[in-house]
Each structure stands twice: as C-alpha cells, then as structure tokens.
Amino acid sequence: MKNWAGNLEYSSAEIQRPTSVNQLRELVAKAPKVKALGSRHSFNKVADTDGTHILLDALPQEVVLNKEKSTVKVSGGISYGALCRAVEEHGYAIHNLASLPHISVAGAIQTGTHGSGVNNPSLAGAVVGIDLVRANGEQVTLTAADDDEFLASVVGIGALGIVTGLELAVRPSFQMRQRVLTGLPWDRALANFQDIASSAYSVSFFTDYTGDAIPQVWLKALDSEPALPDLFGATPATTALHPLPDMSAENCTEQLDIAGKWLDRLPHFRHEFTPSNGEELQSEFLLPLHHAPAALQAVRGLAEKLAPLLFISEVRTIAADEYWLSPFYRQQSVALHFTWKPLQTEVEAILPELEEALRPFGARPHWGKLFTPGQYDFGALYPRFEDFRALVQTNDPAGKFRNGLLDSVLGVAVAS
Ligand SMILES: Cc1cc2nc3c(=O)[nH]c(=O)nc-3n(C[C@H](O)[C@H](O)[C@H](O)COP(=O)(O)OP(=O)(O)OC[C@H]3O[C@@H](n4cnc5c(N)ncnc54)[C@H](O)[C@@H]3O)c2cc1C
Questions:
Q1: Ligand 1: which atom is nearest the Cα of residue 275?
Q2: Which of 87, 277, 320, 413 has its Cβ near the most Cβ atoms within 10 Å?
Q3: Residue 230 — very low, low, confident or very high, per pLDDT cuts 50/70/90?
C-alpha cells in the first residue's frame, strides 16, 4: 500500500477493517504493533507500522448534529468532504478547511492540519470531544474537562491511540467571496505582512520567492467583511486564476468576488474535483507570526536553489491553540508551505538548508509532510514535549503505536 503521493510504501504486515468499535478494541488489545491509517495523504511515514494497519472505513459512518450544543459528532474515518456536505444540509459550517476536502477528519486533526486566517485555529481547534481506543484496548471519551490527556491527544501524531469518534464545534452556515490579487510587491508585503494577512477571514500568498513581487494573494472574505481599502500595490485579477501559472482555473473554487457557501470558497479546489495522485511532494514549517517578514526574507535568500524544485509555495496564518504537540501551541503562526516537484532525493537534499534558515525563528515542521527529524530540538520547540513523552510511555508502554518516524521525534520507546 502506498500513500497518496506514491512516494512511500507502508510496511504493514496486515490490514484490518473492523466493522464495530468493539472489534477494533480487540484488535488493538492483542496486536503487538498497530496503527490507524487515514486517507493516506501524509508525505512521510507518520502513519507507518510494521504490524497491523487499521482502516476505519468499515465502521458505521455517523454524522450526528447536536443543535443545542452547536456540535457535530462524527466517526473517525469520515472525510471532510462528507462532513461538510452533511453539516451544510442542516445549515451549519466548520470554521475552516484545508486545501482539499478528501482527507480524513481524524488523520488531519492528528497532524495539526490547518487552513488560513490570523484568527482561525487549525482544524483541531473545533474539537470538543474525542473517542480514543488506547493501546490496552480500553475506550475513553476525552473532553476539554479532562484537561491534560485531551490536550495531548487531539494533535497526538497517532501516538496515543486510535480515534473512533470526534465531537466538533459547528457554527451557522456562512457566505464568502473570494478575490485574487496579483503582483503584490515584496517590499510592500514584508512591510505590511500582518495587515495584509489580516485583511480577510482567510488569506494565502502564493510565491516561488523569486522576483520583486508575490504573483498571487488569495483573499477569502466573509460576506459581511468590507472590501480592502488598500491593495498595497497589487492588482485585482480580472479572470479566475490557478495558483500555478499556466494551469487552468476550472478546478478552482469560484473567485471574482462572487458570493457562495463556505464549503465552496474555503478550499482552493472544488469538492467534486479529485486531484491526481503522485505528482507532488510537500513540506511545511510553522513559526511565530511576528517573525514572518524576517523568515520570508531568509527563504528569499535561497530562492535560486528552491525555485527549480518548487511548483509553488503557499504562505498562510493560523491562530494559537493549547494542544501540546500542535505546531500552533501558544503561538499565532505563519505557515511556509512548499509544494515540491516529485523529486524526493533533490528535495531531501535541500530540506536541511531550508530548515537551517528557518531555525532562528523557532520553526516547527508539519507532522504530515517531509522534514528532517534530526534538525529539530523538539523539547525546546514544544514546552509540553516531556509531558507528552511521559503520557505516551504510560499509555503505550510497549510502543505498539510507535514507528520509525515517531521514534526519531520522541526517542526510541523503552519497554517497561
Ligand atoms: C494534496 C494535499 C493537500 C494537503 N493540504 C493540506 C492543507 O491545506 N493544510 C495542512 O495542514 N495539511 C495539508 N495536507 C496534509 C494532510 O492534511 C495531513 O498529512 C493529514 O494528516 C492527512 O490526513 P490523512 O487522513 O490522510 O492521514 P494519514 O496520512 O493516513 O495519517 C496521518 C496520521 O494520522 C494518524 N491517524 C489517521 N487516522 C487516525 C485515527 N482514526 N486515529 C488516530 N490516528 C489516526 C495516522 O496514524 C498518522 O499518524 C495536504 C496533503 C495533501 C496530499
């Protein structure tokens, strides 16, 4: 079995598709090594195991709205596409979305997947409850009231259990409009980064770091938000655009300020469009928002080396949260995302240089994308890192949810 990008093959010895949570609990309890696999959209081996892979797609796929609490309860294996359609049918919305809806809700939240918006937390920000099967097969429901274990488990990089259900906050459905600006001069962007990033509900900058201007800035505004008073030297696009020059915009969500529903504007690509497989790799680095201008300048210094390997880079912002291993733990963040050409050897060769350039800004890597674990002092980057390790040791003493990537981040599991 390969991941979505096709750049890695999983090492699992068997695959199980339990049809009930009780069956899943038994499987977990007796397996020496086990791991949940979501929609396989991660680019590294965070989801790998040499034991049993558990797929949750045969479990009952529930979406149960609680209008009094303004929450929705979903099964662990459901995708954002299915979730969004279900809540919208009842007049509700999720606060934010990643760039594509095909990813599983549980897998996305485990790695801290996010969209954009200075005041929008990552997708994990909507979680109010989580059903988890621990390494011993016990099932627990954790909520914010459970404090520590909840805060450790929501963005748990698959190390603390298998998520069979999630309760997510919803809000009334809302309308948005999307506008693309072209040719934002770099000097204006760097001087006014926070103002521009804050100028709409969700803002994304698309660049390859070369030249004097950022080719595209996508503004996703709530219908109630006023139009931008100042375009900072950029020009509004007069036709729909794809983030990559020369690509048709037909698969992109509607632009040109035409109002539409949140689920048809927040993702860059239309729900009904299935992206092709295996034609790109991704990395992403998250750092405090106030460092954005200096960090972007540092990456511009590498532009000539990066550009031949890049399809495009997207720069987004994310609100702070409290999840121990979230890349946004207690810091309002800027995210420097790199969509690479499928040239893994060359990408892995340039990554340490890029990571070194971003190290002074306290950059944390996206858990589901390509990075070099040896480049990071995770204990220094994550104030609750030692607490997370201790909880993993207590809840999974035999290391059954561990794999090579988790060992390189958390240290090799010590059987107790
Ligand atoms: C085309 C594309 C676009 C993307 N866009 C974005 C984006 O806009 N923003 C962003 O932040 N990221 C983005 N990503 C990255 C992606 O969101 C993450 O890699 C995410 O983890 C993928 O979810 P998945 O279900 O495929 O998880 P997998 O890759 O299958 O697994 C990821 C981790 O979650 C664990 N896991 C999965 N299911 C469960 C479960 N039920 N219980 C416990 N653990 C579980 C796995 O064990 C593993 O540790 C993108 C990826 C692709 C391929």
A1: 1
A2: 87
A3: confident
